[in-house]
Amino acid sequence: MPCFRCGARQTDPVRGASPWKRGVRADRQVLICPGCQSARDWADALDRCAECGSAALVCRLGEVECRDCGHTRDAAPGDLVRSGAAPAAPGDGDLSAEVAAALSRVLRGGPAR
Asked: 37 partner at 20 to 30 Å CA-CA among 20, 56, 60, 106?
């Protein structure tokens, strides 16, 4: 999953805690890379808990849960979620296109017959 702000992809982690942060935006789990965390306003784009106002949310199994106060609510269905973000450029963040390009490079001309 890429950083929701800049699109950077997470690399293999070193031992210990990950420097990447998790959050919820438009009822979807997102990651924030260490570079984007240095911007002051990165947390402003995340959803907040309706009970306590915290941005420490996790989204799993169709629910959004606050890690601070424990409040849970149903996440909006994926086809109804509107993030307000600018639409991605064609091919931007399209993992299937990236995988196809990587396979093409590795196989050089297609699969063995």
From this structure: 60
Q: Domain residues for 103? A: 21-107
Question: Would residue 32 count as lying in a domain?
Answer: yes
| Cα 43 to Cα 60: distance, rounded to the nearest angstrom | 20
Q: For the chain, how many structural domains are there in total?
A: 1
Instruction: At 21, list the tokens.
Output: 């942060």
40-85 residue pLDDT tens: 788 888 999 999 999 999 988 889 999 999 999 998 875 444 444 4
Residue with tokens 């690399």: 11
**In-domain check, residue 76:** yes
